[in-house]
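Summary for the steering committee. The consortium agreed at its last meeting that each partner would contribute one worked example illustrating the joint modelling workflow. Our contribution is presented below. We chose a case with several input lines so that the handling of multiple components could be demonstrated. No manual editing was applied between input and output; the record is shown as generated.
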Amino acid sequence: MNPHRKIGDVILKAENISLSFGGVKALTNISLDVREHEICAIIGPNGAGKSSMLNVINGVYHPQEGRVSYKGHVRDSMHAHEAARHGIARTFQNIALFKGMSVLDNIMTGRNLKMHTNFLQQALYWGATQREEIRHRRKVEEIIDFLQIENIRKTPVGRLPYGLQKRVELGRALAAEPTLLLLDEPMAGMNVEEKQDMCRFILDVNDEFGTTIVLIEHDMGVVMDISDRVIVLDYGKKIGDGSPEEVRANPDVIAAYLGTSH
Ligand SMILES: Nc1ncnc2c1ncn2[C@@H]1O[C@H](COP(=O)(O)OP(=O)(O)OP(=O)(O)O)[C@@H](O)[C@H]1O
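What follows is the complete predicted structure of the assembly.
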């Protein structure tokens, strides 16, 4: 990791978040901070509430209690499209790409929020629309270079191996030029080599673009290797929060998570 990386101020603050689905308490009184430029992992056994927490952060779920502030602004209720507009992008546990579309076109869909011209403007101002299109294409090509997927840019995503599909999904999230990138199990189902590649890309995104990253990951080796900080959930409660070394030595975490054959 780049020794000159500088972790900044708190960019995202969740305070006393509680979320239930009917009788199921998915999250109980969770508070957490994420600092600018850091890589923060959320770990915990199945059903611990990790995905729910990510969904609260990007406005998909609305907690019954607590509040979230992002870049200093408190949000009582924020919707997913607003989160995206404010620079929060995410990938999903199950790949959510258009399988019949090419890699290039899939990544281009990540630019949607950046497109300023509407249908009428497109009809009236053809030149401006063309220039905007060229600008977006250039950005997408940069991402394709960055992720080293030039050779498959025209390939329909459904024909790619799983590891590459995950990389394309990362590309689509990057196309939105996010400040905060949420990754839900970016390495699930990958072989060792694919995991190493993905780790490198995550570290490079953080390093080169300064993107703050919150990720959910089950692979402990990966989590401990790439994270600045690890937050541990168990049965919807926070039981650990600290550096990888601190979390590794936390008895509650060992009992709840690391001690199990997860
Ligand atoms: N939309 C929903 N409707 C009802 N219950 C839900 C919903 N989403 C999550 N839950 C419940 O909330 C709890 C936390 O689930 P969540 O998916 O957040 O856990 P997780 O830590 O991400 O699990 P996993 O590692 O298996 O993905 C579980 O008991 C789950 O069944």
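The chain has two domains: 1-87+179-262, 97-177. Residues 126-146 form the longest helix (21 residues).
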